[in-house]
Design goal:
This protein has one helix and nine strands, in the order H-E-E-E-E-E-E-E-E-E.
């Protein structure tokens, strides 16, 4: 008889645990869609490669629905050529193998709130450097 009660108790505990895992969590919110407009604007940058803080401006690419142009990427001349990138939700990806100020750039980032965390490479022809930068929207 004790074995039957033990089995029933174990079954009830397992059922309660299973049902507790199925309840709706009222504190979660649905993911808010992230569009290209979330990226547009001025950003303060802290970068591992240059160990400097500088600013960039992200503009909508007029020739694309999901493209952006980044003035000053990797601390290049803000008035010079702009880095091209494509936005897909919270992900932003640099156009492959683009060269700006003699530097070949590859990589991408993730937008979370008002920050973009970038992971990319800079190839100057002699060295391949791995960089991490955090953009904070101004």
């Amino acid at each position: 008889m004790k074995k039957i009660h033990l089995a029933i108790n174990l079954f009830l505990v397992a059922m309660v645990a299973a049902l507790a895992g199925c309840t709706k969590d009222s504190t979660t919110t649905p993911d808010t869609p992230v569009g290209r407009d979330s990226y547009i604007g001025s950003w303060s940058v802290s970068e591992s490669y240059t160990k400097l803080t500088y600013e960039v401006t992200i503009l909508a690419d007029p020739n694309s629905n999901d493209g952006v142009l980044i003035a000053g990427f990797a601390n290049t001349m803000p008035s010079g050529p702009r880095a091209g990138a494509v936005v897909s939700g919270s992900k932003i990806t640099l156009d492959a193998n683009q060269v700006i100020d003699g530097l070949k750039l590859n990589g991408g980032g993730t937008l979370s709130g008002t920050k973009i965390t970038w992971v990319y490479t800079i190839d100057d022809g002699a060295n391949l450097t791995h960089a991490v930068a955090v953009y904070t929207k101004k």
